[in-house]
Structures are given as structure tokens and as C-alpha cells.
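DM from R.C. (forwarded with permission)

"hey, sorry to bug you on a friday — could you get me a structure for this? deadline for the figure draft is monday and I only need the backbone to look sensible"
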Amino acid sequence: MKQQMSGRYGFRVAAVSVVFGVCAAGSASAAAGMNPDADEILRAMSRFLAGTPAFSMSADISNEVVTLEGQKLQFNSSATAVIQRPSRMYMSRRGRFADAELFYNGQQLTLYGKSVNAYVQKDLPGTLNQALDALESGIGISLPGGDLLVADPYAALTSGATSSSYYGIAYVGGVAAHHLAFRTRTVDWQVWVKEGNEPLPLKYSITTTWTTGAPQYSVQFSNWNLKPTIQANRFTFVAPKDAVRVETIAVDEMGELSAPKGSK
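My reply, with the result:
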């Protein structure tokens, strides 16, 4: 889950993911407060995502922060993703503090910071699940929305949930969607799932309820393509001219990237 942080910008914020998404933590259980309609729709969405061999999408991301003076600010960025199960992934994100690309071809995982022209690369034969785990544990970058990409999204999303609710049909980008809300001990999160036979997530938000000002992180998805045309080299990183390979790329609490000085 996102945890309260503060730093050189004087913000109290939730831990920032460089690309996009929301994670949950704890043990999955069928809590007494779980709404059966919300549960059924979330299961349908999860099965659909897990059963889609390849897809691409775009995302608009909003990340709220609360200054130490109590002013709430919202920072926005855009992202794209191309996924090919079980072991290929490409993501990009561009915003005020981050301009980055992520590549995984089933053998190597690469994070490239365009603004610093530096990249971290690790040999990692495996699957998307292993790549997402390595990002957080090995490179130190959280992909909270990675829960939507794993082999079992339902288990990842409901982990730690203590209650859920169903709020009927809403409209996201003009598209009818089921509005679901879930609670854990530390955050509230919501998801809007497209109505019909393609139960795709259209919007996802998380509120850190125990952080001052209750900042919210949200992602609105668009341009879903369930049969994308994917270039053969889409998931393999080719270093740009003068790009520097480093052991780590620092990511501060606002998502700004920086490479160690003197990296070669």
C-alpha cells in the first residue's frame, strides 16, 4: 500500500509509482462486509484481464499531494502500456516529474529515464509477475496498478480488503461502468468497470485515509485495444546514443528520476 512520506518538496504524499497503478496488502479473505455484487463484478473483470492474451491502453494519472501548510495540489501525467502475456510488457509515463520507459521481454527488465538518459537493466527470465516483483524489490519502484497485470488480479486486488460496496452504474468518459468501492485498514480504493461483455477497468482510484488531507491517486484508462498490432522489438530496450547504464536510478517521492553522479 502507499505509505505517508515527506521530503525536500515539503509534501506529505503517498509512495509514487513511476509508471502507474495501485497495490493492496494483507491476507485475502471473504470478509463479512464484502458486497456480493461488487465481488462478482470484480471477479469478472479479473478473469477477463487475466484471459486476454495481449492488450494496449492509455492512462491519465492524477496524484494528489498535501503540503505541510495544508494546501492540496494535484499533479497529472499520461501513460501508455502494451502487454503480451505471459512475459512481455512495455510502459511509458510522461509528466512534470517523470519521463520514463519500462521494457520487459521475458529475459531482461529495463527502466530507462529519458530526462537523465540513464537506464537500469537486469537479467530476469520469467513472467510478468516476476518482473513486477523485481521492480519493487530489486529496483525499488512500486507499480501499484500492477495488480491489474498479474496472473490473478482478483487475489491481488482483494488482498487486505475488509469491506466492499456496489454503487450502481456511473459514466466514465461517456461509457457506462459499474462503480465498486473497497476498504482496507489503511486505504479506500474504487474501480469503475465497463458494463457489458468486456468488463475492463475504466478508472481506478486510491485514497490514503490515514494520511493528513487524505490525498488521492487515480488512473483513468482509455484506448483499450484487445488485439493490438505489436512490433517484434516493442519489448526489447535499445539504448539511445550516449545513454548511461547505472546500477540504480533514484526515484524521489514526487516520482522525479535522477542517476548517481559520475555514472558511466
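R.C.: lifesaver. The chain is about 10% helix and 40% strand.
me: no worries. The chain has one domain: 5-30+51-162+212-258.
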